[in-house]
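REQUEST FORM: STRUCTURE PREDICTION
Request ID: SP-0412
Submitted by: Lab K.M.
Chain count: 1
Length (residues): 311
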Amino acid sequence: MKHQFAIGTDIGGSHISCAAVDLFTGRIERETLTERPVDNQASADTIISTWADALANVLDKVHADNVKGIGFAMPGPFDYVKGISYIKGVAKYESLYGVNVGELISSKLRVRENFLMRYMNDASSFAVGEAWAGKASGFHRSLSITLGTGFGSAFISDRIPVVDGPEVPRLGCVYHLPYKDGIADDSFSTRGLLKRYKTATGKDIKGAKELAALADGNEVVMALFREFGDSLGEFLVPWLNGFGAEILVIGGNISYAYGLFGKQFEERLQKEKCNCEVALSELKEDAALLGSAYLFNDNFWKDVQHALPLM
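STATUS: Completed
RESULT:
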């Protein structure tokens, strides 16, 4: 069937993952899944060439004539309407500042002239994927968060990201909101966990996985995770209640350590009379692939376009 597939693409800080997604069944075609490491400090041409190589591998396996287009789950700042990157001031992809990503990729892939490329914020893509085919499917209102290098989040109503209005924060996400002596991203991220560990012990550690591995029998580490869970619950409750979220979906690398902080997190929600269900993502990285591919569902595309300029 012509245009049966869309390619979902997750642009990470140091990798690209992409795969063909069947738009009718919501199935990721596993034999097409392609991943490539990316040097995020490289030139724009080198980065785009790496992305194009990965995408070409997927196109070779399903043939471009069967593909409606390529959807990208992209970190910001990014113009999600025009496909132009405005990332700067961080140690990744700065060479892409002002670059029209779609035009360059199209030139390298040599796809048909009207071949479509669409873009959505990476956290929103994760949340849409969960609402389409994951833990949030079957719910009208959800909040999905990713706890990892940063604190990603997106509010979803009937699969559409809600990015403005009185029920959600500015930009429709929470990472930038004030919390303690900084912003939420400073606390609810790998960076925040490792900083608190160093403050408590004077020691550096590589990442959240390594920190969690120390927890057994280590009261300092256990206390750090308990405090993390309680604080995360305290921070999220007003937004969960204000939005009327029926379910909260948690993903990201720190979610693998949910057993160390989940009890305190859920107790805080109960204490604050938040009846929202809590679920760990089972899709994990697949959620962003599905969410970005879903940009080629005609009904979704019609409804989501108003939100893209505000992401």
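NOTES: The chain has ten helices and 14 strands.
Reviewed by: T.R.
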